[in-house]
Amino acid sequence: MNIFSDIEPQPKRSLVTLFTAGLLFWSSLASLLPTLPLYVQSVGGTKQQIGFVMGAFAIGLLLSRPQLGKIADRTGRKQVLLLGVSVAAIAPIGYLFAQSVPLLLFLRAFHGISIAAFTTAYSALVTDLSPPSKRGELIGYMSLVAPIGLAFGPAMGGFMQAGFGYPALFAMSAALAAMAVFFTSKIAEPNFAELTKSDSLSEAKNNQKYWQMLWNPRVRIPALVLLLVGLVFGTLSTFMPLFLQETKVNLNPGLFYSTAAVASFSLRLLTGRASDKYGRGLFISGGLICYALSMLLLYFANSSGAFLIAALFEGTGGGTVLPMMVTLMSDRCEPQERGRLFSLCIGGFDLGIAIAGPTLGFVAELVGYRNMFGLAAGLAGLALLIFVTRSSKDLSYSMKFAIGRGKDVYALNK
């Protein structure tokens, strides 16, 4: 990665330390994905209760993200990062002692605070440490922590639970997050007072109320697009195994997710640098097209090959849209508002994932899983249409920006 050769030694050390903390954090979270539902079942939870416990994660995430975004802007990113990794270290120990579904619901909601805190502060701090000319490339590299952690974490968790039981599993998850606490404490944050000295936004704008910021045109469309993408992603992650079962296709759902993860990982290595040269809009449009094609392929899928091709398109979309949206927002905001604006935009994605299960599940009950994925293709197409026509100040500017032929008029450093 010669991108790091152009960065001063202190920010470079902070980025490497932050990357290490991110890998440990995501591995800790992901180690519980395949095993926690079985644990809920083992303490007497029904299928419905398992769904409620796993979904409670979104409650803590959604309720805490707005406040955490404000704290990240007011006092700096490191405090919020430390909160996120500390919650991730405490929650698994709590699971070990929780022998009832209500207590597990509470702990799972508490655990959700970790991802709200970490993702908001991580994105803001990476942007703070990145030279504007290489911002897309650096955010692309630094965003690799999630797919790598999600690739290795479940395997580690499954192995630990099968070989040594739940106490060892929860201890491992807590230990990974505790190591993330150690590395996070070593990060040297840029001087926040200096970083937030800026005349380009008035004091009134800097103190703008959190929800009022959502109606700003530079924020509103990215948040809406990510809401629709969250609905699509949530549909896929919730119902894919059940759809495979219904179609009787001989394919392990894990292979679908692994294929998507490899595609996501590969794209992140390429698109960040290219977006610094060609703009963010072209890659966001391409990612949304890939999401729509993936859902359309699933609508027609009847063979393992078709499912795996859909996985490649889904991974390509996932590896492009979210990192590029984070980069887009980093172009559009001042340091003193990054935490709030990132929490608003990523909060749209969170909300989409949270409501995908109940809303699209209702559709599946009425018309079946196949037609539900057809509707998801429509949602991805709607996200693309909104982005292509509304991402800039008018239709002409929006279309040019969305195909890489025009600059982002809302970018502050362009």
Describe the fold and architecture.
By secondary structure, the chain is mainly α. The chain has 2 domains: 1-184, Growth Hormone, Chain: A (Up-down Bundle); 209-406, MFS general substrate transporter like domains (Growth Hormone, Chain: A, Up-down Bundle), CATH 1.20.1250. The protein contains 18 helices and no strands. It has helices at 9-30, 36-42, 47-75, 77-97, 101-129, 135-142, 145-164, 166-185, 192-195, 203-206, 210-213, 217-247, 253-278, 281-300, 304-332, 338-367, 369-390, 395-402. The longest helix has 31 residues, at 217-247. The protein is globular.
Reconstruct the topology from this structure.
Elements: H1 9-30, H2 36-42, H3 47-75, H4 77-97, H5 101-129, H6 135-142, H7 145-164, H8 166-185, H9 192-195, H10 203-206, H11 210-213, H12 217-247, H13 253-278, H14 281-300, H15 304-332, H16 338-367, H17 369-390, H18 395-402
CATH class of the largest domain: Mainly Alpha
Name the average pLDDT: 85
Q: Counting H and I runs of at least 4 residues, what is the number of helices?
A: 18
Order of helices and strands: HHHHHHHHHHHHHHHHHH
Outline of this structure?
With 414 residues, the protein is mostly helical. The chain has 18 helices and no strands.
Q: What are the defining features of this structure?
A:
18 helices; Growth Hormone, Chain: A; 0% strand; 414 residues; mainly alpha; globular
